[in-house]
Structure formats: C-alpha cells, structure tokens
Amino acid sequence: MKTKLYCIATAIFQLFPIQKRKIFFLSYYGSQYGCNPKYLSMYMVEHCKDWDIVWGFTEPDRHHIDGIRKVRYLSLRYFYEQCTSQVFVTNYRMNSYYRKRKGQLYLQTWHSSLRLKMIEGDAESTLPAHYVTMAKRDSLQTDALLSGSRYSTEIFKHSFWYTGPIVPTGTPREDIMFADNPTLRGQILRKLGISEHKYVALYAPTFRKDNSLKCYNINFDRFTHVLSAKFGGEWIVLLRLHPHLHDYSQQLLQNTDLVTDATKYDDIQELLFVADVVISDYSSLIFDFVLTGRPCLLYVPDLEQYTKSDRNLYFDIEGLPFPVCRDNDELEKKIMTFDEIYYTKGIKKFNDSIGSYETGHACENVMKYIETTLANG
Asked: pLDDT digits over 164-203, tens only?
C-alpha cells in the first residue's frame, strides 16, 4: 500500500517543473550524513554558492548542517524536492518508486572506491531476488557512475547491469584522506570523547551472512599493549561494526576502557581520518585507508569459511599489501615485525596496478562533470 502511495506522489510531483541548479542528496536511504554524497555536498556548500542543496534524512532534526535544506525521507516534501531537482545523487540502489524524469541527471556514486568482496552481478547467487530486480531497474535509470580506479571501472562493466558512462573522477569520500588538517582531527576526537594525545586504532570488520560474532575475537588488551610496544604512546581502540550489526557492538567491548564504541558514528571516513592504525577484514574501507599510507592489517580467522559461504573476493587476500593475521598471536607478531618501508613500497605497487584515480580532487572533478553534462543538455 505504501509503495502505491509513494508512486502516486512521484507521479504528481513529476508534473511540476524541474528547478535548475537544485541538487538532491541521499545516503543509505536517508539514514546518515556520510559517504560520497556528504563530501560532494560539503564541497558544493563551499564552492558552488548558486546551487540549492537538499538532503533527505530519516531523522532531519538529528543533523545540523550549514548551507543545505533538509526534508524527511519519504514525506510529501521529500517527493516534491526529489522530483523537481535537476540533479539527484545517491550512493545506494533506489527503490521501485523512484522514477528519474527526462531532464534530470541521476548520478550514482556507489559506496566504495574499490571493493574486495564481489558485488552485484558477480555475486548474484548470494543476493535476494527482489534486490537483483531492484538493482537492474536502478541501473537502467542511472545516467553516470563514478569510478575511483581503472580496476573499479572494469568491475562495474561486468557486475553492475549497466552500460552507461563510468566517469573516472575519483571518489568524493576519498578526498579527506589527502587532507592535512589537525584542527579537523581534534574536532572528530572530541566528538568521540577521546584525548588528542592518544593514538587511535580502528577495528572495523564487515558483517557475516549469519551475523555471527565469533570471528571478531581480537583481544583488545593484548592488541593495545603490542601497539604501544611497537609504536610507543598510549592507544585506544575504536570499534566500528557494519551497520547490519548496530545492536551487537556492546557484546564485543570486553569490559575494558580501552575500547570506544563507534558503530553508530555516521561517517566512517572521519574515523579513518583520525586512525593511526586500522584492523579490518573483507571491508572495502581498507582501500580507502591505504591512501593515507598508515598501517592497515587484516584479521581474518575465517578466511576459508567466508569465501566459501559468504562472498568470493576480487583479489587474492595474501597478495594485497596488508599483513594478514589468522589469530591473536599472529596479529601481535605482524604488528611487532611491521616494516614501514616494505609496506609503503607494497602500497605504491598496488595503487599502480589498479590504476587509481584518487588525487584528493574528486569532488572538483565530479562538479566539472555535472556542469559540463548539464551545459550540453
């Protein structure tokens, strides 16, 4: 019933004229102010003063953002703003009630610059049938898809059910990885309640198909001790579970004050920005963090099981530039023997091999593409 009402609202508001230089942003169905839409929007607020910038949020009052207008996700106003925007930007698949209209530019940013887990058509057998139907329909409406590397472009070509332009702009959310901004770091740490004098290790694994927590068995006391022994200083761990596991993070805190739960923190890019070390597994965020040059290790006690029962991978995990650890003992060993020079060479070789487009100017490149496309009709 709701879907019918949404479709009716869309049909009505599509009768209204499109408003030039109005852009509508949506990130994960309005659940957050983050990912690529956030960073493109921030750039526009600063550099594109003649644009009307609108965001859809499930909880608009939770977000206090200068330079934009907010509407409640799936409200009547939401449909009006979306239907009358000249440009629509999102990082996820749109539901069946979305109808791109003639004269509107639909820009799909996706939600990673590169991925380790197979996606979309390459993982079709693991995806629900209704999602596949929705994704195929969404791709037919997409006008342009952003790419962060030559390797990503090739993945999109065979996985995304899409034959339109794949634009080598770089990834807007990666621009922050090139920033040298101590003030921003301090602001983020204060929001997290962490002293600026502490070093930060971010533990950010992805989810498993059965939502099991067994593989997240890092001993945080041992982990922080070995970090201090190797790199010096006082360390704290930020725990960031996948959004699918929002309600489970408290189970992993292990009654220690060495861990801060950041699972519900909106913007993973800000957590990566303040992290001195990252531990992950099969999450695409490892390819975000690699741009900083700082240490990243993979903790994968279930590697064989994951690739057999969850998702296949685009890369041989042992061939990536990140040290691979199967248990706590190996994690300690790999930290203590971490070789920065060897790691840096591995990162350069990897980025060269994938043909990275990331330069820290993705937002600028995307806006140039939007302006040129609109100017050419």
From this structure: 999 999 999 999 999 988 899 999 999 999 999 999 999 9
CA 168 to chain centre: 17
DSSP string, 153-198: HHHHHHHSS--S-EE----GGGGGGG---HHHHHHHHHHHT--TTS
Helix (H, G, I), strand (E, B) or coil at 237: strand
289 in Cβ contact with 278 (< 8 Å): yes
Q: What is the pLDDT of residues 114-125, one digit of tens each?
A: 999 999 999 999
CA dihedral 183, 189, 194, 197 (to 10 degrees): -30
Long-range contacts of 158-162 (CB under 8 A, 24+ apart): 158/121, 158/122, 159/118, 159/119, 159/120, 159/121, 159/122, 159/123, 160/119, 160/120, 160/121, 161/120, 161/121, 161/135, 161/136
Q: Of 5-9, 59-63, 174-178, which gets the smallest average pLDDT? A: 5-9
How long is the chain? Answer: 377
- The tokens for 132 are 């596949």
| DSSP SS3 for 68 | coil
The reported pTM is 0.93
Q: Are 238 and 262 a contacting pair, CB within 8 Å? A: yes
Residues 6 or more apart in contact with residue 32 via CB below 8 angstroms = 266, 267
| Token pair recorded at residue 366 | 């995307």
Chain Cα centroid distance, residue 328: 27
C-alpha–C-alpha distance, residues 224 and 250, integer Å: 19
